[in-house]
Specification:
With 99 residues, the chain is α+β, with helices and mostly antiparallel strands. 46% of the residues lie in helices and 15% in strands. It contains three helices and three strands. A three-stranded antiparallel β-sheet has the order 1-2-3, with helices on one face. The termini are far apart.
């Protein structure tokens, strides 16, 4: 990858890991023939969006909406995203949403 610092190399590896996961999600949505934004296959994905009116970033998953606060990504050298990770995101965010 050239002359990158250890930190920059880790950032690129993290971006690649997340990008591969996103590719798999898109393939799954296509395979499931998800055709609109109200289908559970789409709603259950962790999505980030920018609101120009509020000048803030939000995180949406299912019916939960949170203000993005630059959360800790985790142990990026060990970052793995699996279907279980996705289910954990749903379970944890729905728990927070209900409180």
């Amino acid at each position: 990858i050239g002359d990158l610092t250890k930190s920059d190399r880790q950032k690129i590896c993290t971006i690649c890991t997340i990008d591969v996961h996103n590719r798999d999600v898109v393939a799954k949505l296509i395979a499931m023939k998800a055709e609109n934004a109200q289908e559970f296959a789409w709603l259950s994905q962790l999505k980030h969006r920018w609101d120009d009116k509020k000048n803030m970033c939000f995180v949406d998953i299912c019916d939960a909406v949170f203000t993005y606060s630059n959360e800790y990504l985790g142990n990026t050298p060990r970052l793995v995203i699996t279907p279980l990770t996705d289910r954990c995101y749903i379970t944890l965010t729905q728990s927070l949403h209900l409180t």
